[in-house]
């Protein structure tokens, strides 16, 4: 479990790096999931990192940075797309939470960078599944709470899940993780 948490931490730190601590906003968590995406009117492609040449987007207030795969503008609203080269197992009816939070980071970054409201975001897996989310109070708050938890773990070294030494020894982050010393 901690493995998953730290894995997620790495995702957030690397793909949407927490560069600054602080703000308490009135986000409100929760998700607005939805299985397969309904049709989305895409509009105009205004940002793409398809070839790795997209500029890094920053959000100094929440302390995030990252590069979405695609940002589309439809009227005065944005739609953000995260493309996964990986397949999602057929038995799964929802994306991995880390992927969902990654998309949420990009939705926040798109909103801040383009100064336009984000209407929705979408995860596309190589296996064909698509999942659409609204950028609403729920998702914003879920992202903010996740950032807070990561910062707390990062600052204190205390995790809220237990991990055993034997789990650490099998963990892919073992060589670089400084939290393994808390394992018992
Ligand atoms: S080495 Fe242990 S504490 Fe560190 S990420 Fe892996 S399982 Fe978690």
TrEMBL record:
Q: Transmembrane stretches, by residue range?
A: none
Q: Which InterPro entries match?
A: Cas4_exonuclease (IPR051827), Dna2/Cas4_DUF83 (IPR022765), PDDEXK-like_dom_sf (IPR011604)
> Which taxonomic lineage does the organism of this UniProt entry have?
Bacteria, Bacillati, Bacillota, Bacilli, Bacillales
The DUF83 domain covers 35-177
Quote the protein name from its UniProt record.
Answer: DUF83 domain-containing protein
One of the Pfam families matching this protein, by short name: Cas_Cas4
């Amino acid at each position: 479990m901690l493995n998953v948490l730290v894995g997620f931490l790495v995702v957030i730190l690397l793909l949407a790096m927490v560069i600054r601590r602080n703000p308490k906003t009135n986000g409100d968590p929760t998700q607005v999931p939805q299985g397969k995406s309904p049709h989305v009117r895409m509009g105009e492609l205004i940002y793409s990192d398809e070839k790795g040449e997209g500029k890094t987007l920053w959000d100094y207030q929440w302390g995030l940075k990252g590069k979405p795969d695609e940002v589309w503008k439809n009227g005065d609203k944005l739609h953000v797309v995260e493309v996964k080269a990986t397949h999602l197992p057929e038995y799964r009816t929802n994306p991995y939470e880390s992927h969902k939070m990654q998309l949420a980071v990009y939705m926040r970054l798109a909103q801040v960078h383009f100064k336009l409201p984000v209407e929705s975001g979408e995860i596309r897996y190589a296996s064909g599944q698509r999942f659409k989310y609204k950028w609403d109070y729920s998702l914003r708050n879920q992202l903010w709470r996740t950032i807070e938890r990561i910062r707390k773990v990062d600052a204190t070294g205390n995790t809220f899940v237990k991990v055993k030494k034997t789990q650490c020894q099998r963990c892919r982050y073992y060589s670089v993780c400084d939290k393994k010393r808390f394992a018992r």
